[in-house]
Each structure stands twice: as C-alpha cells, then as structure tokens.
Design a protein that fits this description.
The chain is mainly beta. Helix content is 14%, strand content 51%. Helix 1 crosses helix 2 (13-36). The relative contact order is 0.10. Mean pLDDT is 84; it is low at 320-325.
Amino acid sequence: MLTKIWLFIKRDPLRRGVALAFAIFLYVHLHSQLTVEHRLVRVRVPVALTLAPGLQEQTGNSPEIALTLKGRAGAEFRPGNVQVSVKVGPHHRQPDGTYLVKVTSKNITISDRKFTLHNIDFPEEGNLRLNLLSRGERSVAVRPVFDGTVPPGMELSYETIPDKVIITGAENVISKLKYVHTNRIPLTNAPEFFEFNTALALPGQVSAAPSSVLARVKLIRQFSSRSMRLPVSFLRNPADNAEFSIIPPLPHGAELILRGPAAKLAALQPDQVRIFVDTIDIKSPGRSRVPLRCHVNVPEIDMVSIIPEEVEILLKSKTSNRSLF
C-alpha cells in the first residue's frame, strides 16, 4: 500500500502531494466532527415577544418552543444560553383572531459556542400560534375608598383632582371598567377638611394617566330638624305683683321646630329648652298680644319656627310675687 502511494506521488510530486495533504486534512476534520459533536440535548425555551403597538400578552400565557441542540461531548447545557425572540404585528393576525408567527433559526440565539441548533421540534415547522389581546384606552371616573367610619353627626363630602383618568390595557378588561378606585384614604382622627395624595388601585396589566390623584375631603356636620311641644312660661320681674294668663289657654303648650347638628338634636332634653312670654315691660292691667320666644341651652341649636307665633295675655294685679320663670 505504501509502495503504491509512493509511486503515485513520484510521477507528479507537487500536485499529487498537495492533493494528498488536502485529503488527509479533510479526513481529520470530518473525523473530529463525528467524534466531538455527537451529543443531542432537547430543551424548552421561552419566547420573548416584541409586540406592535395595540397588542398585549395574556397574563400567564408565556409561549415556549422545543428545540434539539447538538453539543460537544461533556459540555454542560445552561438554559439561559439560548434566547428566542420574535416580532408580532397586525399582519400576523389570523381569521380566528390568533396570531401566527414563523420561528426560524434567525430568531434563535445560542451564546454558548459548544452548542448549535439541530432542529425545531415544536411548534411543527416553527409555526408559533399566539393568543394576544388588543390594547386600548378610555376615560373613566375616579372613586375614593375610605378607611374608617364617618363620625356621628357628620357627613362625608369629597372630590378628586382630576375626577377622571385615562386607563390603558387589554380591551376586554378596560371595557368593563366604568370607574377606578383609589387606595384607602384614612378617616380615623381626620380633621374636618384635609387633602390626601393617593395612588389608584388598578387591575393587573392596566395603567392609568395620571397614576395618582389628590383627594379633597370634608367632614360636614349634619343638620336636621326636630319638633317639640312644650309649656309656655312667663318672664317677669320678681318684684312684680301682677298675675298673667294666656287667653285662650294652651293646655298642650306651643309647638317648636328646632334646627341643628343631628347628634345634638337627638340628645336634646325638654329641660334644656324654654318657651316663654316676656312680660317685664307690661305694666297696665288688661289684655295684650305678645310674641312667643324660645331659649335653647345647647350651642348650635336654633329655633326655626314656633306655633303659635304670638298669644294674647291677661294681666291681673296680685299680692304675691313669682319667680323669674
């Protein structure tokens, strides 16, 4: 065998020597490839999506593809060394509403040179089908949420600045939102007027512009009315010897309408209110028409009306003295 090779080279040593050297190099290279790159690794790799404006991924539905990699014997595969990324636009939309993207080797990056792509196992022929959401925006009202209770006798009044925000997100989500809530605004030990900056409480993958609002909150005292029927007293000079009476008599007293904070009105007792006739300046015996007056011994409670507004009184002289009421 060696004799034949020597005779072959001897006839044309230069050209046939080069050919022999190339053949030896090719044999060594192919042998090296066959003996080193013989390990196959099957992996699943997440796909990073670059979406066109107006498209959004669904929560919890990250796509993956299955690959077979060819690596050198003994090389340790690390999942982070393979990245797959595709761009998705409106032209990928299918009649059924899904998006179909062709994944090829151009979409796959292998940073570890000990491994190369052998095959795309899934999806079949690299046709990746995606369920994406249309992205939209709309204007919605803001509703404050409070932590705590309104104090008794107080009424809650509020406004937010702004009172509406622009929300952006999946169309099937934001289409159901007629308003968005704030985070909780504390009412415990709150003054009667305060301002509070608060973020908005938004569903997942929904954003708002602006993302926070200023809440202006007022705690307004509740005013209500209350009717009371009370006897009529006489305001007189203790040294006066006159005797007064109402004509005709009011056996059930006069009716009084009061207005004030609801809590104070509810707690008001009859002995804290007086209906009276002022007779201090009446000196001559006989009949006189005088107005009924009221005194309430509780701040913030006022008289609205009294029925009757005036009465006729009869003055008679007497020998005994009477007290102020």
